[in-house]
Model the fold of this input.
Amino acid sequence: MAELSTSKLRAVPSLGGVAALSQARASDRTDAEVLERVREGEAEAFEVLVDRYKNPLVNYLTRLVRCRDRAEDYAQEAFVRIYKGSGSYREQGNFSAYLYRIATNLVRSDERRKSRWFKLTPALTAELDGPKVEGPPPQRSLLSAEATEVVTEAIEHLPLNYRAPIVLREIEGWSYAEIAEALSLAEGTVKSRINRGKERLRRSLEGYWSGS
Done:
């Protein structure tokens, strides 16, 4: 597993191929079946799961942190952690939620560390707000490049507790139940955070929509 833990995710899979699964149509195997083979010593079988989930996971993380290189690093670490813990994990149809939860927690841990640092150096916190958005009011289409960038930036500035469920619900199209599973929250909490996050977005974008 050395290559997975040391190379960038864009270079994964590089685990030696899936020859052990080729005769059994590896792509048709369930997550549980693949993980069972990993536990039985077929390390190369883990490549199937990396192939299956790396693109949607990296896309999700890129929307959270707005940096694809960082997103790939987080995804890489999430896969490594699951591989190392594969001996104790038992798949029950929720592997994707488990993977997304680990990846989101990695982002959350980094943000907590940053938060602690900023509390120690208050002079730096002013940089978190970023420049104010100025310019004419947007046109009717919210799909313009400008509006998309403004909204994306506003989402980035949301606390992760609001940002993660909003991205999963509104962009990734997950159900409340799936989000609750991935983030270890009650469904009611997920709905509440999404509503509160949207309200924060509305307030932060009021000046842009009104042209002020």
